């Protein structure tokens, strides 16, 4: 932040510069299952009130413990197809016969008022977002430090059978092959260090000139007072 030119008088106590208006951004976190993107997403949502999670729509049935509007927005196939046809989704995919997608309206509304949207999606969804979002998008790929470490993390969760873990490990090779399509890559050796790196990336992306929509006015006001 620029400092006011000193004139021998102390600035009035408690007086602060007005915040510069900012356009929000779309922050994507992707990784193979078990590499840490979900943990990083939760930590970021807890730590930064200017970030909100994009809630996807899905045609799959609600699972025990899930809440409509928090985990997903559960809709039927007819409604989903209508959203695709009317260009109401920023990205969508069909996985094992069930459809998932990102509603456009809540994302655009948040960005317009300077809030940031967080996406926990795979490389295919990220590609679709890049085609539609352009400069509004910042993408991060999270890698595990090693293959044994990734397998250990999957086993530590104690949520999946050996067969499922083997399937996730096989899928990880394909997912990791897309690392070069992302703006940033973080190796999650330590979750706190990885989280600090995510926050540093977000801070830098917020300061990009094109996102600070009120910067031109701020500079002109500074110049007028010189």
What is the gist of this entry?
The chain is an alpha/beta fold. It contains eight helices and nine strands.
Please tell me about this protein's structure.
40% of the residues lie in helices and 18% in strands. It is of the alpha/beta class and 226 residues long. It has a domain at 26-54 and 115-224: Rossmann fold (3-Layer(aba) Sandwich), CATH 3.40.50.300. α1 crosses α7 (191-206). The longest helix is centred in the last third of the chain and has 16 residues, at 191-206. The chain is globular and about 70 Å long.
Element layout with pairings:
Blueprint: E1 26-30, H1 37-47, E2 51-53, E3 57-58, E4 73-74, H2 77-85, E5 89-95, E6 98-103, H3 104-112, E7 116-120, H4 123-133, E8 137-143, H5 147-156, H6 162-176, E9 184-187, H7 191-206, H8 215-224
Helix pairs in contact: 1-7
Strand content: 15-25%
Q: Give the count of helical stretches.
A: 8
Oligomer: single chain
Q: Let me know the number of strands.
A: 9
N→C terminal distance: 17 Å
Q: Which geometry do the CA atoms define?
A: globular
CATH hierarchy, class of the domain at 26-54 and 115-224: Alpha Beta
User: Biggest β-sheet, characterized?
Assistant: 5 strands, parallel
Structural class by sheet pairing and helices: alpha/beta
Give the low-confidence spans. 1-17
Radius of gyration, rounded? 21 Å
- H/E element sequence: EHEEEHEEHEHEHHEHH
At CATH's second level, what is the architecture of the domain at 26-54 and 115-224?
Answer: 3-Layer(aba) Sandwich
């Amino acid at each position: 932040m620029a400092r006011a030119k000193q004139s021998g008088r102390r600035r009035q106590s408690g007086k602060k510069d007005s915040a510069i208006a900012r356009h929000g951004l779309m922050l994507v976190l992707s990784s193979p299952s078990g590499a840490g993107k979900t943990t990083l997403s939760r930590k970021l949502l807890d730590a930064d009130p200017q970030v909100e999670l994009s809630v996807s729509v899905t045609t799959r049935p609600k699972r025990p413990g899930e809440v409509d509007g928090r985990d997903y927005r559960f809709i039927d196939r007819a409604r989903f197809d209508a959203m695709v046809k009317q260009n109401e989704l920023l990205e969508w995919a069909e996985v094992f016969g069930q459809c998932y997608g990102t509603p456009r309206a809540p994302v655009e509304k948040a960005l317009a008022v300077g809030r940031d949207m967080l996406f926990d999606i795979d490389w295919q969804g990220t590609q679709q977002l890049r085609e539609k979002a352009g400069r509004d998008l910042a993408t991060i790929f999270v890698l595990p430090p090693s293959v044994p470490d990734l397998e250990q993390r999957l086993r530590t969760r104690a949520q999946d059978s050996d067969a499922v873990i083997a399937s996730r490990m096989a899928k990880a090779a394909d997912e990791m092959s897309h690392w070069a399509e992302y703006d940033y890559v973080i190796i999650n050796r330590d979750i706190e260090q990885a989280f600090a790196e995510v926050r540093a990336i977000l801070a830098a992306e917020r300061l990009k000139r094109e996102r600070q929509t009120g910067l031109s006015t701020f500079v002109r006001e500074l110049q007028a007072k010189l």
